[in-house]
Fold this protein.
Amino acid sequence: IDELATLVRAFNEMTSDLESNGKELEARRRFTEAILESIPTGVISISDDGHIQRVNRALLGIFAEDTVQSARRLEDLFAGEDLQEIRYLIKRARRTGAAGSQLEIVSWGAVLHLAVTVASLAERRGFVLVLEDTSELLRAQKSAAWQEVARRIAHEIKNPLTPISLCADRIARQIKRASLTPEMRAILDECASTIQQEVQTVKSLVDEFAQFSRFPAAQPASADLNEIVESAMAVFAGRLEGIDVTLSLDRKLPPVLADREQIKRVIVNLVDNAAEAMNESPVKRLFVGTSQESPDTIELIVADTGCGVSPADKEKLFLPYF
């Protein structure tokens, strides 16, 4: 009887331990799922034979929702060289435990830069694929690199301009003192004046280029957006021949808080780009309009019938002079 009681007691303790372990495992599973759903990086759980077992919500920021929901294998998400690269990373992860690389994929018409990491699970239970969108980081790095390039170029060009300007002044003074024919004096005066003018032109160009290294802060003030648009369009007077231009300005717009010169520069650049984009277009139409979409929203539209911007070019839109 004592032995039976001991056996029953041991069985009850074992059952209790199993129940506790089961609850602990379930708690851990829920905790892990909560973490996966909250992190901003896409996560894909893959079986050893390549079937997708689980994905997290962040993956919807990289692929379309219907694509993610219908995906059963890696080839449903990746194709071509991207799929080959993922499979190569899986082979490496099988040997070394983890492997990483960079991918460029086209999603929703835009090029995304992804940092990809594949980790192998123990006992051949599969792999975990982590996808992090580093597009913004790369864009910031490119911007910082261009700022440094602009600063150095501006510095190197400005250095010789001062002695050139001083030499031109000295030449001009010597011309006044020298015994020269009127014709020779006129030629040399013109040359010295041209040197000075071109030095100032180069200085202005360098200052303009150097703005990329400073990115001057906006100076917002109360402004009439329609007046800014009209001022920008006046720059193109007589320069948009062959283009059907429609200017539709809402005269009831309230004042806006804006940096007049920077907004004007934006409009000038957009119109100039639009005209260039329509060079080969059979129909050349440019629309520039303003409207009040809501009590606190003003809309400015610059639209054209040009060739549009390719996904690859969209990645370069914020590079200087692109």
Notes: The two ends are 91 Å apart (CA to CA).
